[in-house]
């Protein structure tokens, strides 16, 4: 039996162990965007360090200093550096992942408790916050090391881990750490791999060589000293929510067209050659409908959908802090509301330029309202877009591994989401970076009822391990 077959057999024999590990990780509510959960993000880092050390990795926690969140100054969670193997004859692969998650409450519409992993045996799906983004994939790498140890097989490469707890909140502090550690911890890295995105649809695996960037804004409008009765004060005062809705609706049309002057002009023109790349992709409107659980795509053509995800910017409205949103008919005029929206950036757009255009537009729209309220707009976090050359042994190894594990040639995609440090890894380290996702498009990352199919977790773990063997065999 070949070494990779032994590894695969070991993974199949330990499915229960893999599920238990994910359940333990999901049980820690490591929400980075809410100061009340900050201790849990630290706890999650300690838990991962224990898992890695137990398997023989050498770890170090790198502090990142402080941040301002919800008006308080609090400690940023540490970054975990870990080394597994330092054999100079082997290639060294840098693995990045994140152990923080998006917020989740059962009352948001979850069918189960978000921080309890639930294995639905009928569908063989694992439900829980972080199952697919990004605890499952991070644990995939740990499962790979464990299976090698259990099966008595040598890992064919050296691994370096860089795991952070602030990805969902803009990766504050990590870029500086990468620069500072370029010739220290990151010295000797041959290539990098991140598993933190999703297949294009629900059936076919993919490799990803591009990400959109992000500029996330908070727009606050305040007026009255406290919430007011709309019967007593309605029609008398300038209402913050009315101002906010006017401005928010001046940002984007229901057809997804961004109305902020100057943004469209930043986008690279589409060439015939590029359009053909979308035409040949195996993908249909039906795949997207499956992923969204609806038939609500703006475009009815697959090329339009693919380009909207991969090569055009988008502007999304996320929520309003301070607004009345519960059941019932409360007749309140909220005193202060904070609108949250973000722009996804494509290559040739920079967060600085986009912030300049958005802030100018919002100021001008607010002025038009003639309101006596106070408006403030801030860029809460940002990440640059990233695009890599897929003609590299790192991608060749992942293609072969996908063929071995899934029996198909993977799609080559660009992802619509953002991983702020992807560009830093490519630029600062000057090494090739590959995105090798485990999860499917319908996993519900950032949404209610986030899940990872058990088969994606198990086969995905095999994929990560076989990819390392392919690197050793072909690179
Ligand atoms: C693609 C990755 N799994 C992800 O979800 N990234 C976030 C990053 C982010 C940046 N600011 C806030 N979140 C995303 O794309 O939304
Ligand atoms: Zn993620
Ligand atoms: Zn995420």
TrEMBL record:
Keyword Endoplasmic reticulum: no
Entry cofactors: Mn(2+)
Keyword Secreted (UniProt): no
One Pfam family of this chain: Peptidase_M20
Active-site residues, as the UniProt record annotates them: 100, 167 (proton acceptor)
Key words, A-Z: Hydrolase, Manganese, Metal-binding, Metalloprotease, Protease
Gene Ontology terms: biological process: proteolysis
Residues noted as binding Mn(2+) 2 in the record, renumbered to the chain: 98, 133, 196
CC cofactor note: Binds 2 manganese ions per subunit.
Residues binding substrate, per UniProt: 196, 229, 331, 344, 418, 446
GO MF term (any one): metal ion binding
Residues reported to bind Mn(2+) 1: 133, 168, 446
Domain Peptidase M20 dimerisation residue range list: 210-367
Alphabetized InterPro entries for the sequence: ArgE/DapE_CS, CNDP/DUG1, Cyt/Met_Dipeptidase, Peptidase_M20, Peptidase_M20_dimer
Family label: Belongs to the peptidase M20A family.
Name of this chain's protein: CNDP dipeptidase
Organism: Ceraceosorus guamensis
């Amino acid at each position: 039996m070949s070494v990779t077959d032994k590894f695969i057999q070991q993974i199949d024999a330990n499915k229960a162990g893999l599920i238990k590990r994910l359940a333990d990780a999901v049980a820690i509510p490591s929400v980075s965007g809410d100061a009340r959960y900050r201790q849990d993000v630290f706890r999650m880092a300690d838990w991962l360090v224990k898992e890695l050390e137990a398997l023989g990795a050498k770890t170090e926690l790198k502090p990142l200093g402080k941040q301002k969140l919800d008006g308080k100054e609090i400690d940023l969670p540490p970054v975990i550096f870990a080394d597994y193997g330092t054999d100079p004859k082997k290639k060294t692969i840098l693995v990045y992942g994140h152990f923080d998650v998006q917020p989740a409450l059962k009352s948001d519409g979850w069918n189960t408790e978000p921080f309890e992993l639930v294995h639905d045996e009928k569908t063989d799906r694992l439900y829980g916050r972080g199952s697919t983004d990004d605890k499952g994939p991070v644990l995939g790498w740990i499962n790979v090391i464990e299976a090698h140890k259990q099966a008595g097989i040598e890992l064919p490469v050296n691994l370096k881990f860089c795991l952070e707890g602030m990805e969902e909140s803009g990766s504050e502090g990590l870029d500086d750490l990468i620069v500072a550690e370029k010739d220290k911890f990151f010295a000797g890295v041959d290539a990098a791999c991140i598993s933190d995105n999703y297949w294009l649809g629900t059936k076919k695996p993919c490799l990803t060589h591009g990400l959109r960037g992000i500029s996330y804004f908070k727009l606050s409008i305040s007026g009255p000293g406290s919430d007011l009765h709309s019967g007593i004060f309605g029609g008398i005062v300038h209402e913050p929510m009315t101002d906010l809705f006017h401005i928010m609706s001046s940002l984007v049309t229901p057809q997804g067209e961004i109305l902020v002057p100057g943004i469209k002009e930043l986008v690279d023109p589409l060439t015939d050659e590029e359009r053909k790349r979308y035409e040949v992709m195996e993908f249909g409107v039906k795949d997207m409908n499956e992923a969204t659980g609806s038939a609500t795509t703006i475009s009815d053509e697959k090329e339009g959908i693919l380009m909207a995800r991969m090569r055009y910017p988008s502007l999304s409205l996320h929520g309003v802090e301070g607004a009345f949103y519960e059941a019932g008919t409360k007749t309140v005029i909220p005193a202060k509301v904070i609108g949250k929206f973000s722009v996804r950036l494509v290559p040739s757009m920079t967060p600085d330029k986009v912030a300049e255009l958005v802030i100018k537009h919002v100021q001008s729209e607010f002025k038009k309202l003639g309101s006596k309220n106070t408006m403030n707009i801030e860029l809460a976090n940002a990440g640059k877009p990233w695009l890599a050359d897929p003609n590299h042994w790192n991608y060749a190894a992942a293609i072969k591994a996908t063929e071995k594990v899934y029996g198909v040639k993977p799609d080559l995609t660009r992802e619509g989401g953002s991983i702020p440090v992807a560009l830093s890894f490519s630029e600062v380290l000057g090494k090739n970076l590959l995105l090798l996702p485990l999860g499917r498009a319908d996993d519900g990352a950032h949404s209610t009822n986030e899940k990872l199919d058990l088969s994606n977790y198990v086969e995905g773990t095999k994929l990560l391990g076989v990819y390392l063997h392919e690197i050793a065999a072909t690179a």
